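Aim 2, interim progress: modelling of the protoporphyrin IX containing FE-bound target.
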Amino acid sequence: MKFKAVAFCRIVLLSGLIVLPFAITWAEETTLPREKLVSIFPNAKSFTEKKADLTPEKVASIEAEIGTKLHPKDLKPTFYIAFNENKKPIGLALLLEVKGPNGVISGGVGLDMTGKVVKVDIHKHSEVAGVANDEFLQQFNGKGIDDKFKVGEDIEPLAGAQVASQAVALMPKKTLAISYALFLKRPAKAEEDAPETIEPEDLKEVMAMMKDEYDLIRAYFQKGDNRDKEAAVKAAKQLGKHAELIADFEPPKNPNNTEEYTYFREQFHDTIHEFTQTLATEGISERTQKQWQEVIDLVNKVHLRFSVEEVELDEDLN
Ligand code: HEM
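Predicted structure of the complex, ligand included:
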């Protein structure tokens, strides 16, 4: 999750090319919200601004990331880039507004060169006083694009002000999502998004891969510990991916019943997909337990119809 200096240099270069030549950009400094920027980057020696435009695709991806609609004002964000005395960029800031339960909350968020939040400031609000206090705001520092910014999970809300706390948490989350959508490249996520490199030789190999994932999910339900949810969701996703490989092989029994076999494959695909989605939001719940049972019932049916050998999925447990 390195927030590359290159990215900033690109912003700086662009601001020089598109907005105005450097000398004039410096001269413009007086029109910048200097006080607000200095509060975020007290060590900065100068600032420049870069206006950006969000395409509908970027808006869609940002909204998916933050889980809510962007404000019309967010669609043309103005970034402020902070420089040190050697004219090296040290971070960027965005001034923005969110809707609190009692009205608009406005503030500023700074990110450092590694893409981590360095400061959240609140400028105006009609909520409890605590939302503007460092004590509350400092918890955002050091967080990055992969953090949830979710009250009750990684954000400690102000007593009795859950909704306002969540609204403030949206500021750094939005800043990160917009910055990454515009300038910053996320490195490919670990394993999960990596292309599948193992090419199974036969159906038994596919099944062996699926069995590992199946066992992990089964253990998750048996243990009943939702701290393992992430691993279970990952296994469910992999299970869906690996199931796609089934189509490359003929079943050893009833190989001519292709329609029925295809039906089972599609059913499995849909059921596991739905299960994965629900699991990601609900973890262990009545619904996910029911969906998991549906997966098992389906798999048992397929095995009966298309495997010569008896397949006992839970043979290693009593
Ligand atoms: C949770 C999902 C699944 C698991 C954990 C699983 C697991 C297994 C296991 C352990 C075997 C025995 C492999 C062996 O004898 O070495 C097997 C065989 C088989 N499975 Fe699955 N399976 C799953 C889903 C499916 C689905 C969705 C299909 C087809 C639509 C399928 C079709 C078959 C067939 C045809 C065989 C016999 C393979 C052979 O003997 O060559 N399985 N499965």
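The two ends are 44 Å apart (CA to CA). Strands lie at 46-51, 78-83, 89-100, 103-112, 117-124.
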